[in-house]
Amino acid sequence: MLRLNRKGELSDIELIDLKGFVNTIITHITNGNKNEERLVNAMGGTIIETESEKLVRHGMQQGIQLGQAKMLIEIGQEDGLEDTVILKRIQAKIGLSLEEALECMRMYGKQTV
């Protein structure tokens, strides 16, 4: 796989996906026979999400959260709310940690147009 990737015959995305599939297969094999029936039933008809699809989905989720945080910060500042209140709203409504909310405040707070 690595050789094909270096030669350009396998894209980076394809390499990531294949590595994910190989890891999944190895995990299932090493679980032993006692899990075999459960795994066969679980895999039947299941749509497998590739590693590259997971990365894209995760990136999209982060982008959506940042957009929501920016909107909450702008609205909170327009309404004259204190930063602590805005931070609590970001944590409660979007589910970000305090550190993530503080980073959003650093990025989007008190911007002049």
Task: Name the features.
single chain; 113 residues; mainly alpha; 2 domains; 6 helices; 74% helix
Question: Could you describe the 3D structure shown?
Answer:
This protein has 113 residues and is an all-alpha fold. It has two domains: 48 residues; 64 residues, no CATH class. It is built from six helices and no strands. Helix 4 packs across helix 6 and helix 5 packs across helix 6. The longest helix is centred in the middle third of the chain and has 28 residues. The radius of gyration is 22 Å and the shape is elongated.
N-to-C CA distance: 50 Å
Class from secondary-structure proportions: mainly alpha
Number of strands: 0
Mean pLDDT: 80
- Low-confidence runs of at least 5 consecutive residues: none
Question: What share of residues is helical?
Answer: over 70%
Element order: H for helix, E for strand:
HHHHHH
Spatial shape = elongated
Per DSSP, the total helix count is 6
Query: Mind telling me the C-alpha Rg?
Result: 22 Å
Report the portion of residues in β strands.
Answer: under 5%
Largest sheet: none
Q: What is the count of distinct domains?
A: 2
